[in-house]
Amino acid sequence: MAQRSLRFLGAAGSVTGSRHLLKNNNEQYLIDCGMFQGARVLRERNWQPLPIEIGALRSVLITHAHLDHTGYLPRLAHDGYRGAVYASQGTAELMGVLLPDSGRLQEEDAAFRNKHRITRHQPALPLYTEEDARRALALLQPQPLDSTLALSAAAQVQFHRAAHILGSCFLEIRLGSGDDARGILFTGDLGRLRQGASQMLGSGPEPPDNVDYLVMESTYGDRLHPDDDVAPRLAELLRAALQRGGVVVIPAFAVERTQKLLFLIKKLMEDQLVPRVPIHLDSPMALAAIEIFLRHTDEFNPATRDLIRRFGQPQNWDHVFFDHSPTASRAINNQAGPMIIISSSGMATGGRVVHHLAQRLPDARNLALFVGYQSPGTLGFEIRSGKNPVFIHKQPVTVRAQVAAFEEFSDHADAEEMISWLRRMPRPPRRIFLVHGEPAASAALAQRIQRELGWNAHPAAWLEEVPLE
């Protein structure tokens, strides 16, 4: 009888830090290698050594490019991992932008903290560097979506479309053969089943196959997304802020969310629903990420492809500025409104958007606009929740700016969509492990699965290890 188990090294009881260790006899696989974000107690886990023997890992498998699923990989490489990293082609290309940028921003942040002496550590150090990120990228072995890969004589993986972001997939791993065979499916982040005006990808996630165990995200396990057309309200908010001479600061996830926003705002401006003002994409990765998206238009829906045909490439728009260098980023703070700044990170956990918020929040003419999930403990969560003042770089910042938020831009399936997706399974899995959700969201989804489907669903706990019998 094979000895198999699954251990949850991250995204268990929290939304970030996705890392799941799968053991199959003497083989060990790490599914996702994400960075913890949010509250300090979570971020400090990034500095704790993984409770595994890195040399024993046979390979790392990645569901999609977001940093809460990939952002720890450079640290793993820094600590000695030299094995293969498997991801889809689109995911690999996006990682080639995201990971070096993450290392560069961490180096910039450490340098800023040391210069201004706002660190508990002397000196402040980055979790990893840009060079560590490039070392990790050298391990990537991209795979086509919908392909099957032999991991060993006793294991294989299929890459199914998850429709969360470009290149995203859920991983179906088959272990053993005959009566001893087992199937485990890792959803990563599931995309939307209902398609709205703010969605870019062409269709929802593929239906799930027969599996024995399911590791499923639960980010929105206790709520539903609004179905309203986002464009009229977005136009109203932008128009009001810009007409009063304000600056709109949008903390945006650099992959997918920024591209959605950019094309939608461009359409509102060209349709004369929003004043035509400068748009600053203050992210070193912005142009590279957009170029990747334009190479993979086959994954987009017809409405998105129509926008690309209508407006062309954003790098050719005369009122859009790509601010690559720290000098260019700082120069934005010397400019008056009206203008729009789109900058990462999406939850304002770090990066350049933190400096823009510190500069612009005290002015009542301005607008801070949130378009994604804000995890408790993040600066984005505090601002969105109405905390005043907030502390940025240990200094109090008064919030006089207007604050608004949208749920419609989410790339995650909501509770109803996840239940609908589960109903497509040919038969119930033996157990469902819920990850990537706050405790209340995971618990609510587990109760709903048990109530409506009668299936065994269990919110995973951090560092919990369960046998796969």
Describe the structure.
The protein folds into 2 domains: 277 residues, Metallo-beta-lactamase, Chain A (4-Layer Sandwich), CATH 3.60.15; 176 residues, Rossmann fold. A 7-stranded mixed β-sheet has the order 6-5-4-3-2-1-22. The chain has 469 residues and is of the alpha/beta class. β3, α1 and β4 form a beta-alpha-beta unit. α4 runs antiparallel to α5. The protein is built from 14 helices and 22 strands.
CATH class of the largest domain: Alpha Beta
- Assembly category: single chain
What integer value in Å does the Rg equal? 22 Å
Q: Mean of residue pLDDT? A: 91
Number of strands: 22
What is the percentage of strand-forming residues? 15-25%
- Summed up, the domain count is 2
| Separation, N- and C-terminal Cα atoms | 9 Å
Shape summary? globular
Total count of helical runs of at least 4 residues:
14
Looking across the biggest beta sheet, what order are the strands in? Answer: 6-5-4-3-2-1-22
Structural class based on helices, strands and sheet pairing: alpha/beta
The CATH topology assignment of the largest domain is Metallo-beta-lactamase, Chain A
CATH architecture assignment of the largest domain: 4-Layer Sandwich
CATH superfamily of the largest domain: Ribonuclease Z/Hydroxyacylglutathione hydrolase-like
Reported for the largest beta sheet, the result is:
7 strands, mixed
Helix content: 25-40%
